[in-house]
Design brief:
Elements lengths: L1 H9 L2 H28 L1
Keywords: Membrane, Transmembrane, Transmembrane helix
Length: 41
C-alpha cells in the first residue's frame, strides 16, 4: 500500500504542476471576470 501510494505521488509530479498552473490561471480569469462584473454594476 505504501509503495503504490509513493509511486502515485512521485509519478504525476509534473502533471500536478501543470494542473496547479491551470488552476491559478483559471482563478485569475474568474477574479478578473468578477472584478469586471463588479465594475459594470
Amino acid at each position: 500500500m505504501d509503495g503504490s501510494l509513493d509511486a502515485r505521488h512521485r509519478l504525476p509530479a509534473s502533471k500536478f504542476g501543470l494542473y496547479a498552473h491551470s488552476a491559478v490561471g483559471f482563478l485569475v480569469v474568474v477574479v478578473a471576470a468578477a472584478a469586471a462584473a463588479a465594475a459594470m454594476w
